[in-house]
Amino acid sequence: MFWSPARASSVVVLGPSVVADDGPTTDELTASAAVRRDAIDGAHLLLPDRTQLLLTDPRSAGPLAAQVPVCGSPKRALAATNFGRTRVGLPPQRGSRPRRHALDRLALRLRALDAALKGVAYREIAVSLFGERSMPSGAAWKTSDVRSRAVRLVADGRALMLGGYLKLVE
Predict the structure, then answer these.
(1) How far, in Å, CA of 104 to CA of 112, rounded?
(2) Is 131 helix (H, G, I), strand (E, B) or coil?
(3) 63: part of which helix (H) or strand (E)?
(4) What's this model's pTM, rounded to 2 decimal places?
(5) Would you tell me which of 42, 43, 115, 155 could form a disulfide with 56, CB atoms 3.0–4.6 Å apart?
(6) What is the DSSP string of 108-129?
(7) pLDDT of 86-121, one tens digit each?
């Protein structure tokens, strides 16, 4: 899947360079891309590390440079910086990839949403996510933090389904 640069600030937009003579070329990037799709706005490339590039002039034979709007998203500047860092063998800067905890929480939201869409009760969702040992019995279930967490995860999953997922790619 390719994201529009207007929707995802993680897309690195590249065009003909007016100052640098050592930037990557269209041919080099296309050769290293896992997927290429040509579109009206240029050529979209997906690199093996999941970096998405948009080449605004895919017929350009010269070196390319990142196009980062001065008033644009700081995330776009970070994406361009990290693309440049990985090209020279350096690791991406911190904050550019979701942390393990955030990915785990996203997985819990999606699992809870999937179960809720199938009509599974909150208690069963909580058991599948947190295990039977963490479940209070009887009336204590109605006021338990485990139930509240399951309800919150389902609500967060629904919010993602209804368009909140777009915040993940900004």
Answers:
(1) 12
(2) coil
(3) none
(4) 0.58
(5) 42
(6) HHHHHHHHHHTT--HHHHHHHH
(7) 888 888 776 656 677 777 888 899 999 999 999 999
